[in-house]
């Protein structure tokens, strides 16, 4: 089976990037396309199933002037018989323009019974002037770590870290919260089982 399609970019002036295709058996998800000057990045595709689950595709970046980053794709299912952990979630796309929010990291894939889920993807960073960082991807179960929340840059809130589900294989760390903007914004919360951080301002 083929890897999920890598989707094309948006128009030079305006247009959203296309969503990445989902991966087939043993193949990762396709990356989302990047936006042009104004528009949102496409979402990454879901990783395909495999002995070890395949990674989700990365979210595309937002427009050079305005637009949100795309969300990362979820990791694929681990089927075994050995090494049957879930796939890693794809990273969220960054907002690279003046305004826009970072995309959320993809959730980690499910592992086969008795195996850990995949790690969550990292959230994308917010826009240069204003925008929130994306939330980190969650982990369904096991010892993998939740994705870190993306950072805000000048004004905006950091993304929350991804949470982790319990499993016989142990419990991983919740993702770290992203940093708030340098001028103004809340820091993102760390997810359980980490201690939840206080929300704070950077001025």
UniProtKB/TrEMBL annotation:
InterPro entries: PGRS_rpt. It holds the Pfam family PGRS. This is PE-PGRS family protein.
């Amino acid at each position: 089976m083929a890897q999920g399609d890598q989707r094309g970019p948006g128009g030079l002036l305006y247009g959203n990037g296309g969503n990445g295709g989902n991966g087939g058996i043993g193949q990762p998800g396709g990356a989302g396309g990047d936006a042009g000057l104004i528009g949102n990045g496409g979402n990454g595709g879901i990783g395909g199933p495999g002995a070890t689950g395949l990674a989700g595709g990365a979210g595309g970046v937002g427009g050079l002037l305005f637009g949100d980053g795309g969300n990362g794709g979820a990791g694929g299912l681990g089927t075994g018989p050995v090494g049957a952990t879930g796939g890693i979630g794809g990273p969220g796309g960054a907002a690279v323009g003046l305004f826009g929010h970072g995309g959320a990291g993809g959730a980690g894939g499910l592992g086969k019974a008795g195996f850990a889920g995949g790690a969550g993807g990292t959230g994308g960073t917010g826009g240069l002037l204003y925008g929130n960082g994306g939330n980190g991807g969650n982990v369904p179960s096991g010892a993998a770590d939740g994705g870190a929340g993306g950072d805000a840059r000048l004004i905006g809130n950091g993304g929350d870290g991804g949470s982790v589900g319990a499993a016989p294989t142990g419990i991983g760390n919740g993702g770290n919260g992203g940093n708030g903007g340098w001028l103004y914004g809340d820091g993102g919360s760390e997810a359980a089982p980490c201690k939840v951080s206080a929300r704070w301002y950077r001025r």
